[in-house]
Amino acid sequence: MYYDLTRPLSSLSQLSDDFLKTVLVLMNDATPTVGHVAEANARLDVFENVPVENRRVGTEIDSLRVLREMLNNAPTERGKRYVACAVICCQGQEQWVRLASDWVHFLLWPFKSAYKSKSPCASPHSVITLPETEASITVVKERRDEHFLRLLKERQANKCAVIVNLGRIKTIGAHIIRRSIAKADKSNAGLHISLPATWDILRHYADLSEDTIRDLENIIDSPSNGILLQTEMHDGFDDFEWYFEATDQPDVYNIKWLSEDGPLGTWVTGGLEQVRFTNQSANDIPLPNAQFLAIHAAIAKVLHLSGAAEPLDLVMDRFNSGSSPVPSGKYGSADLAIRWSLLELFGDNFTHLPTEIRAH
Fold it and tell me: HNH nuclease domain: which residues (predicted)?
């Protein structure tokens, strides 16, 4: 299995280029993935002996749990190999914390904040520019595709994919991958990608092809990136409370819940435990993209099982109490670092925390 050594592994801000090259070399060796996974787990067992207060990312997140869950829930074999090799190449405690920190900043935080908000995640004050990845991404334009919802309704016969036994219900078109994960930065006339680091990590973690990354503009508003859902199920999907678990049958998924409060009553009353996606239109409308559903599922599991979901929610909510969606322009990794620093200073006295944060 060959991985291009000329391309970056990921834009990890706290780890050197030499580290990244070392990871790529290890990914290209002859050792089976299962062997690398075993060695990575053995090293994480050693890391477990480090006091938890010395493993923190931010104020609440345990880097050990992040690394373990990134490994355990990788959506592809390549993703599992990627995580295992990165863990193996770390030289002890400090680098393990840095590795987890970068995955929190550039993967978990962008997804968590973008899905929680109904606003774009690009900020002119916290744009990550990685030329190698930026060059291969077609910027998703500001416009919303007017055909997106119509095609979803046509494909699903205007019915929710999951809720079937509740009579007439309100449905919404859900993007599997939110548009704001790959969106034009208006302040730079589309010259910068708001989250190239995220897509660079996903290239390896989800084994995304170059064609997929280049064609984001067309894919984001394609029905292959959408599902028609009942409103509460849509909100739960965006909050990573549940996900579609792939089965050994194409386009057939089990519904899995992660919420501590358990499944929504709406789903208990009228929901399916297993969904089979079919095209109910006379037109050729693509079914939901299996890779995108796997990405959503992996992010959901890592967020909840690592314990990162609640601290990231806290960071967003404490700076925006009283408003439901998080205002746009606050999703860059630098913004997250500043928020955590302020939380350490103010603690529970968050009524004095600013709601406008700009990282220059």
Answer: 172-245
